[in-house]
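Hey, can you fold this one?
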Amino acid sequence: MAEASDFIPPGSAASLSPVERAAIVLLSMGEEPAAAVLRCLSREELLDVTQVMSRLSGIKVDWVKTALQGFFDDYREQSGVHGASRSYLKRSLDLALGGQIASSVLNSIYGDAIRPKMQRLQWASPKWLAEQISHEHQRMQAVFLAFLPSTLASEVLAALPEGAAGGRDRVLLQMARLSEVDAELLAELEELVERCLSGLGQQGAAVEGVKQVAEILNRLPGQRQEMVELLRAHDAAVVAEIETSMYEFFMLSRQSEATLTRLIEEVPMELWAVALKGAEPPVRDALLAAMPRRQAQSFEDLMRRGGPMPLSRVEQARAEIMAQVKALADAGEIQVQLFAEDVVE
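Sure. Predicted structure:
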């Protein structure tokens, strides 16, 4: 996602994306109502909309009118009859079946009561969560990961120490064998989750050191390469990460037409078609503008024919392209603008 300094506001109200419209509606609501809405969003939805909210500035009147009108049009289309809430069903089932049977039925509908608590752990660092469960027995680790969202669970598993509870492979095997968790183990899991939640506010702040150093080096006047070589003498592996971070895909949106033309010549169109799947509009627009009109039309047809792509394949294609960009820049064959800055003719 683009940094705040790279944000390009929409040209008209009609060009507002759904996330931008949602951000404008939330900004129009006031803090407390907006907070109540944000609590209902998933982690990814919350991050998407709040990042847009933080970047929006100079909001035009017609943007607000369009966003609010769309919201109320959608609202009027609703019937006004909502599905039963969990509390409504619980009261009804308690009266119909009794407390214990009602709880069993509700768990089969909504999942176990532990799941809402586990959802709150999505804001914790995967490394921190791995540390919290690293000394637990293998079956507990498997149950803990089974109740987490799959993306977070994979990151926590990757952060587990190699020797933890017999190895990651054994934890995965235990998880695959799970079909039902008995009450005793569930109570033990709840204690572990409560400990994690109580310590959630004490976890350290995440700092993207590699990215920050890359930003500093990008802006360092003169002797940038000399500084990189001095760092490489201390830790070559870290410097490799820094150099990779300096060449992120969005930077293509701010390159000159001459640089983009050379890259279009060097990189096969099929690879561009994969890499630009889901890319931010400034990147796609910059590359299409650097192509002759007929080539741009053929390229857009190629992208449409390609259909949806796995994210891993898209990321691989982008990494391959940026490796070529770095190689050409290191060889002095192209000039790259590594960060957003004012330019003069």
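The chain has 20 helices and no strands. Let me know if you want another pass with a different chain boundary.
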